[in-house]
Design goal:
By secondary structure, the chain is α/β, with parallel strands linked by helices. The protein is built from eleven helices and eleven strands. This is Methenyltetrahydrofolate cyclohydrolase.
């Protein structure tokens, strides 16, 4: 039934162990740290917010604003130097979800004026063939961003392939050089992964204080969890990560001013995981059966929205929260890469 959270009765530790095993992995200047002067989510001395109802932090208006600015900059670039950014995508296999994600990215790029190309490789593609394709895009001066759509088939070495993407064209931000520079104090990555970048952008735009606050990130994947933890630390939050070996995760999250979740377990985070007045960013995207839906399923996050909204001060919806901003951050990364390549300011 739509609107009702079906909570897992399995112990949280067992759920995390099943989903977050250790094998999961699943010069740009970072935005300045902004300290809001006024906010609906300012903490009281006892850690509880003074709020009547949760604010819904929609990502759609933020994404619309960012995409509009990217399109304007690309138009200015084309008028000034006659060139535009270029994105190359490599898609291996025929996973429907991967194809859908790629189509969304290509459509968004075309809308703002980014030229795109895609190479589709068969499911049984060899490692060497895939690396050859990536190397070709590395050498192509008209390509400013390269995306190898993940996940790859199991016989391919994902880490090795990502390592072959030029750090200067790694618009996903997954290359070890970019990830390493994100972790090192005083270093600047060429690109920040899009999902963590979107998370921080949402918090800042909605006036949520990050500096000095206790933040818990549920999950430690390279795509979202790990890099979100690093980025929150750059904004001077005190960060704790909950993962597959964490005992009593709900006790840890209940002490957090900011909770970010990306584990891919529908509705695992309920009101009993959350401190009253906390701010929640739900980065999970899960399909659950819904006979009342025309498609037979609906999209939900990791957080039981109907429970959480009664407790927290602000929360992102799923869908419509982090997702739209993630896409806009990808477009922004591609634009930044082209600007560096062209020396365009």
């Amino acid at each position: 039934m739509v609107g009702v959270c079906r909570r897992f009765r399995t112990k949280p530790r067992a759920l995390f162990s099943a989903k977050l095993s250790p094998s999961c992995s699943s010069p740009l200047i970072l935005p300045p740290v902004r300290i809001p002067t006024q906010t609906a989510h300012r903490l009281l001395s006892n850690g509880v917010h003074r709020t009547r109802s949760a604010e819904i932090m929609s990502g759609r208006p933020i994404a619309k604003d960012i995409i509009s600015k990217v399109a304007s900059e690309i138009s200015r670039m084309k008028a000034a130097i006659g060139s535009v950014p270029g994105l190359a995508v490599v898609l291996v296999g025929n996973r429907e979800d991967s194809q859908a994600f790629v189509n969304i990215k290509l459509k968004a790029c075309n809308k703002v004026g980014i030229e795109t190309s895609i190479v589709r490789l068969p499911q049984d593609c060899t490692q060497n063939r895939l690396i050859d394709v990536v190397s070709g895009f590395n050498k192509n001066p008209s390509v400013h961003g390269i995306i190898v759509q993940l996940p790859l088939p199991q016989h391919l070495d994902e880490e090795r392939v990502i390592n072959f993407v030029s750090p200067e064209k790694d618009v996903d931000g997954f290359h070890p050089l970019n990830m390493g520079n994100l972790a090192l104090r005083g270093k600047e990555p060429l690109f920040i992964p899009c999902a963590p970048k979107a998370c921080i952008e949402l918090l800042l735009r909605y006036g949520v204080e990050i500096v000095g606050k206790n933040a818990v990130v549920i999950g430690r994947s390279k795509i979202a969890g790990l890099s979100t933890s690093l980025l929150l630390q750059r904004h001077h939050a005190t960060v704790c990560t909950v993962h597959s070996f964490t005992n009593n995760p709900e006790q840890i999250t209940r002490r957090a001013d900011i909770v970010v979740s990306d584990v891919g377990i529908p509705n695992i985070v309920g009101c009993d995981w959350l401190m009253p007045g906390a701010v929640v960013v739900d980065m999970g995207t899960n399909s659950v059966k819904d006979p009342s839906s025309r498609r037979g399923f609906r999209i939900t996050g990791d957080v039981c929205y109907e429970e959480a909204v009664k407790v927290v001060s602000a929360i992102t919806p799923v869908p419509g929260g982090v997702g739209p901003v993630v896409l806009s951050m990808l477009l922004s990364n591609i634009l930044d890469s082209a600007k560096r390549a062209f020396g365009f300011t």
